[in-house]
Amino acid sequence: MHLFGELRDFSLAQKIQMELQQKGMQVELVRDDVHGVARLFVRDQKDQEAAFHYYRVKLGLPAPPPKVDEDWQKLMKVPLGEMTRGLIILSLAITIALFFDEKIANWFYFNRLEDAPFESIMRGELWRLWTPIFMHFGILHILFNLMWLKDLGSVFESKYGPLFLLTFVSIVGAASNISQYLVGGPRFGGMSGVVYGLLGLLWVLPKMRDDFEYKLPKRDTTLMIAWFFLCLTGVFGPIANMAHAVGASGGILFALFLGMVKKKPPLSLFIRFFIMATVLPPLTFVLEVFVKSFK
Questions:
Q1: What is the CATH number of the domain that holds 218?
Q2: Catalytic positions, please?
Q3: Residue segments in the chain with a per-residue pLDDT below the cut of 70
Q4: Which residue from 128, 129, 249, 258 puts its CA 20 to 30 A from 180's CA?
Q5: Residues 77, 32: one domain?
Q6: What's 23-63 look like in SS3?
């Protein structure tokens, strides 16, 4: 048996024993009349920590802070990469500039507002393929995106190098920007398409390669999927949903490619994720049209 508490109040000890047994733990109460205490034990060691935390709370002591998920502990130990740092600084610089003068946004939009479709890029302003990812339109917007970029970008930069991260951001960023422009015009911005790409990569790559030691906790995977579909409802106003979808698909396709480079992944797994990557953008488009039809 494994000790987790000791009390002089026998009735309180009995109450704790009963409540923990209702939670499915096997709890033993041993009365020590010599020392005037009641000791609480659990039979299974795996229940000891949870029983001790419950015992502390019943005594009026503060509950310990929740443990950080082991997968997140690994992710957070990765040092900030130089390429990741550069992307963050560039995002901050452009966003701060927009705060002081909104008119300069026209220099960073995918296409000038007064130009015909794709006219700006056809004229040679190729930077517009990427500059929308560095534009943010609020504090929460930029905080959310750059916090994810800091953690996820650093993981892949440390694993595959800064050139890989730059290539990934360039391809996924441009693809998500083009898709969002096609469905919603030039008034959009944010790193979220790239962030969803990194999330898709981190979600699928561990399933493709045994030598990739990082993974996204299931809770965070569920949260980001739920957030994706919640944004599609329109409750948060205009959201670059197509950029999210194409970004996530791009991350999944990158993961499939990296998996094939190392070894041949199971065909059924490859097909499942490939179908997911190809279906997500058109499905997002259909859902957006459906939601907008009710407005």
A1: 1.20.1540.10
A2: 192, 244
A3: 62-68, 236, 262, 295
A4: 258
A5: no
A6: CCCCEEEEEECCCCEEEEEECCHHHHHHHHHHHHHHCCCCC
